[in-house]
């Protein structure tokens, strides 16, 4: 029996999201989520797509990731898709931080695990959870190739001029301080899909990708390679996000310590959880913000304007970085759904060859599509992102290429 299935796992500190795909047609067989792991009120939601079955929900304590994965496997097994199936070719893990070292998806061995662990100081919230997910999956299927797909990998092609902060080089190197970027799987998928939409090879096109979800980041992609992105050492830098501030004068932090008497943890929480759209107007959901704007709410209007202003700055900056731009593309929850955001971000940029057709922009669709007028010099597009499909594709390609050959890494 040929092994053509890939399980994609996205392990957070208290949740596991998963998708099982069949790589023959890249179709989804099952999707689901275990939430509140470690609490009394854990919940599992499982949808067996291949059988057209109904979503099944179960509640009750799931003490740890091992119990969570066993519960997932039991759900999959009900439809003959369990983790022990010989048709499972590999497990692909989303790993947030791969530092400078991991420039490609990588088959996981002990050295790779140790390196992901070594990167915990630069990703204290994410890498430990990702490691737990990997170790648990390894324990359940020790014979199966497990692949790490890094959020940072796509950005490792950034030139040093974009990746370095202008601070003392020795201090930066000692603490591995540089701009790594995140959402790389999405930027890779969407930039390639945009080239496809334009009917051109990725090597031929220059694209500005705007990944606008609860977290948000922009990237400049030249000929399929990332040359600049808005997130930095952590996912805090760059655009205004749902709850994160994005760009900020670092002296704000000194001021909050010296004058405001705040602790580092308090400032961390302020900038990551109580800033962005939430900090500005109390809501982080763009649907709610638009509803309030339409009702004449001034705070929501200002939050929206600040969000758009920052976005425009990045579009202009990345236009200048790329020199020639073939497409500006919107993706993720806000980018795919919020027509007013797309309209406002592109407004008044005709001199850059950018325009949005109001009718095309108003269309709601799950398909990749152009929203610029037919005679536009630069295409404006909406391309739904699919990070799980990208992780599965990269995992399957690597396992197919390397079956039995062990790990592959590119050195620092
Ligand atoms: P993501 O992180 O990509 O899942 O995006 C989540 C965000 O997308 C939400 O917080 C909303 O702000 C936004 N969003 C989702 N659906 C819509 C919609 N129909 N209109 C506007 N914004 C939306």
Describe this structure in words.
It is found in: Cytoplasm. The active site is at 151 (proton donor/acceptor). With 412 residues, the protein is an alpha/beta fold. It has two domains: 5-150, Nucleotidyltransferase, domain 5; 200-386, 2-Layer Sandwich (Nucleotidyltransferase, domain 5). It is built from 15 helices and 14 strands. It has helices at residues 65-77, 110-118, 127-140, 160-163, 169-174, 184-197, 251-258, 264-273, 276-281, 286-294, 298-322, 332-337, 339-346, 358-362, 387-402; strands spanning 5-11, 16-22, 27-35, 43-47, 56-59, 88-95, 106-107, 146-150, 206-212, 216-222, 225-229, 327-331, 369-370, 379-382. The strands form two sheets. The protein has an eight-stranded mixed sheet with strand order 5-4-3-2-1-6-8-7, sandwiched between helices. A six-stranded mixed sheet has the order 11-10-9-12-14-13, with helices on both faces. It is globular. It starts with a strand and ends in a 10-residue tail after the last helix. Bound molecules: adenosine monophosphate. The site of adenosine monophosphate has 12 residues, from helix 10 and helix 12.
């Amino acid at each position: 029996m040929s092994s053509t299935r890939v399980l994609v796992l996205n392990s957070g500190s208290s949740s596991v999201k998963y998708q099982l795909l069949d790589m023959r047609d890249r179709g989804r067989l099952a999707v689901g989520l275990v939430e509140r792991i470690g609490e009394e009120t854990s919940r599992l939601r499982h949808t067996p797509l291949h059988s057209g079955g109904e979503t099944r929900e179960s509640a009750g304590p799931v003490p740890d990731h091992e119990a969570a994965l066993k519960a997932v496997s039991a759900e999959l097994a009900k439809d003959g898709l369990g983790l022990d199936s010989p048709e499972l070719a590999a497990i692909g893990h989303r790993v947030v931080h791969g530092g400078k070292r991991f420039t490609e998806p990588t088959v996981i061995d002990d050295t790779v695990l140790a390196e992901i662990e070594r990167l915990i100081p630069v990703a204290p919230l994410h890498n430990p959870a990702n490691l737990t997910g990997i170790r648990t999956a390894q324990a359940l299927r020790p014979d199966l190739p497990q692949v790490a797909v890094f959020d940072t990998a796509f950005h490792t092609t950034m030139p040093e001029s974009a990746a370095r902060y202008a601070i003392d080089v020795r201090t930066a190197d000692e603490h591995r301080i540089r701009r790594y970027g995140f959402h790389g799987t999405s930027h890779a998928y969407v930039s390639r899909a945009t080239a496809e939409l334009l009917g051109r090879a990725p090597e031929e096109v220059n694209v500005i990708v705007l990944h606008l979800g609860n977290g948000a980041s922009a990237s400049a992609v030249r000929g399929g390679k990332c040359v600049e992105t808005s997130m930095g050492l952590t996912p805090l830098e760059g655009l205004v996000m749902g709850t994160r501030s994005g760009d900020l004068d670092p002296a704000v932090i000194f001021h909050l310590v010296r004058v405001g008497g705040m602790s580092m943890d308090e400032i961390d929480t302020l900038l990551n959880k109580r800033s962005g759209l939430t900090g500005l107007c109390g809501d982080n959901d763009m649907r709610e913000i638009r509803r309030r704007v339409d009702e004449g709410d001034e705070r929501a209007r200002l939050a929206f304007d600040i969000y758009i202003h920052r976005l425009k700055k990045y579009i202009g900056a990345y236009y200048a970085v790329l020199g020639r731009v073939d497409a500006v593309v919107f993706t993720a929850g806000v980018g795919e759904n919020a027509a007013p955001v797309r309209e406002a971000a592109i407004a008044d940029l005709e001199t850059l060859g950018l325009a949005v057709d109001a009718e095309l922009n108003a269309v709601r669709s799950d398909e990749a599509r152009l929203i610029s007028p037919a005679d536009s010099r630069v295409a404006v597009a909406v391309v739904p992102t699919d990070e799980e499909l990208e992780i599965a594709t990269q995992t399957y390609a690597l396992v197919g290429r390397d079956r039995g050959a062990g790990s592959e890494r590119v050195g620092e």
